[in-house]
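Illustration: Threonine/homoserine/homoserine lactone efflux protein.
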Amino acid sequence: MNSSADYLALCLFVFPLMFSPGPSNLLSAAAASRFGVLGTVPFVIGMDLMVLLPALAVGYGLVNLLALNPDVLMVLQLAGIAFILFLAVSFWRAEPEEAKASLQHSPGLVHGAIVQFANIKGLVLLLLVYSQFLDSQTVDGQTVLAISLALTALSLVSHFSWAFFGDLLARCANTVPAIRLQNRIYAVLLCLTSLWILLKGLG
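Result:
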């Protein structure tokens, strides 16, 4: 990772995975449709802290520590799944005029961190990136830091792009039937997301 060409290659490599409609992107859009982009900022920051920290850990080989207590990972994944299902039920049951009644506060930093940690796709992405852009024989601290910061920046752009999309959709389609339909669609997508995370975790 010594030239701009290396960073361009990294961006092209991770773009399809990061900007595709995965769990964290769908949650960003869903939260912003309810609370607006500004109300979603702590949630997004929480998710992206859990991009940066695992990226550093994987890069420096600390991911092997999970082997000492694999139950910790499972507990965190189940907590993330439970929170996603809670959001799904809230969206499904909320009527347009009650849009903010079922969730008085937007999801916060801790919620974002838990959800992102439960996302197996994120760990797979890290392993793919380091297998392509890091020399497995030597740990170059500068390269690990550069890759970690680059991935975090791309993740922030991705999450906020989806948040803007969710907020825009909510503003443009603000009739009662349209809002109700949006809520139901988000609820179904979030249920499917939690099922996907669970199956990946068990597999």
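Reading the tokens back as a structure: DSSP finds seven helices and no strands in the chain.
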